[in-house]
Design goal:
This protein is α/β, with parallel strands linked by helices. Bound molecules: arginine. The site of arginine has 9 residues, from helix 12.
Length: 551
Amino acid sequence: MDFKRHIASRIKAEGLSENDIYAMIELPPNTEMGDFALPCFRLAKAMRKAPALIAQQIAADYRTDEIVGEVSAVNGYVNFKIDRALWAKQTLEAVLSAREKYGSGEDGKGKTVCIDYSSVNIAKPFHIGHLSTTVLGSALYKLHKFLGYTPVGINHLGDYGTQFGKLISAYKRWGSREEIEKGGLRALNALYVRFHEEAEKDPSLDDEARAFFKKIEDKDEESVALFEWFKELTLKDVGRIYELLDVHFDSWAGESFYNDKMEPVVAELREKGLLKESDGAQIVDLEEYGMPPCIILRSDGASLYATRDIAAAIYRKNTYDFYKCLYVVAYQQNLHFKQFFKVLELMGKEWAKDLVHVAYGMVSLEDGSMSTRKGRVVYLEDVINRCIEKARGIIAEKNPSLENKDEIAKTVGVGAVIFGALYNNKIKDITFSYDKVLNFEGETSCYVQYTCARANSVLEKGGAARSCTAAAVCPQEFEIVKQLAEFPAMLRDALDKYEPLAQKFNKFYFDCSILNADEETRAFRLSLTEATLIVLKNALGLLGIGVPEKM
Ligand code: ARG
């Protein structure tokens, strides 16, 4: 039984449906006045009455029962006091029976959602700037799956462009196979950096690079083989990171995949009268919409990033018939997405409205900016390894006798990196700080992981007795029940914070004796502990963060 629903069904307010009321009912942080509350401020307009009056009227009309025992009106709020033990019982039963499925659902049944994330560039370093798209995209993937959608994870590889001509030229001049086999992406990047240095002195190198790129396009055997090799090296390098972060993809169709799929797009644009010539280039004029033109073909006939994205969107619609197609890409590309979404709309694709740019802010380290060309790069792998190293140090200090230290340091370190990227507001630039993400007392993944370990140890010592029934529910217990009950709604509200639950559990742990309580209370508190552990694990799991048994 859904208590909120029960309350909503018994309230009549002019011009508002039961669902409207349901959505407005809150769980106030301060439970002195009531356990549930209905703020009446938004009702005021529809009902043309002061909120305080509306609240009084609703409270007076409400029929109490065994679920809601007391109703009062205070300052525009209607407050409801419920039978806490009954609510706790139902909530705990729900968590303990659904377990790792608690919070999941069929909301998205039959709906496919394409998620374009990580989308690395071949032969370019996988640096800290790719962290957010990778972990945010992966979390969105897991969350959609949990809620019953069919997600399609797409790594839209940056595997097309003149930089590959530069790399071939650099490799042929200064590279060696052994060196690259050994050094992987970093060695490739060193070649790329050298090319730019040398090309500054000798501009003819740029012509050579262009010629090599043309060779790739013309399917010259040697050049294509080199390019494929670069691609293989890159995927091997980034594969290690994806494995560490538990990130997966269903499709690796990158930019070059659309080489033969753009001609029909260009033809369609032309047919629909959308193409215009400008300085030899073919563009779609977007002035009317307050944007610079979207360039479709350069004056030499070459396609562009946007052309490929238009072809890719059409391909995805045809292939997956998506309900939504998400692009998890930094806000620096806002204009690009707005432009090509608009072009698709102008082409008459009614589904253009289902394309969503999920923007986020850039992550940087405390010590300043990066430049691929100049070789100033912060490799993501280094950041992850450093976090694991630091976690190892903290564990060695706090709990030197712990078994599996390496495994646990990995889980904690990787969790810290993921959490560090996800914790902040999605569209704000953030500075990554090792100390902050590995603070065991802060709002961090290791704090939550540590809470889980604490819950595990309580359960281990507590034995098998469980009970969802309590004679009375103390405030600390009630706070946990609230969080557990809200978890499904919170997930649907997107990736929100879950660390309040960990905080509340720790307060409960310190304030209320679990193991030394009388038998009945102890069994109830163990159930509460177990339910907390389940929900914390579910929450972390959706973000790609693991939970060690012990810490
Ligand atoms: N490879 C691009 C970059 O690193 C991101 C691609 C994003 N996806 C897309 N469909 N445009 O900037």
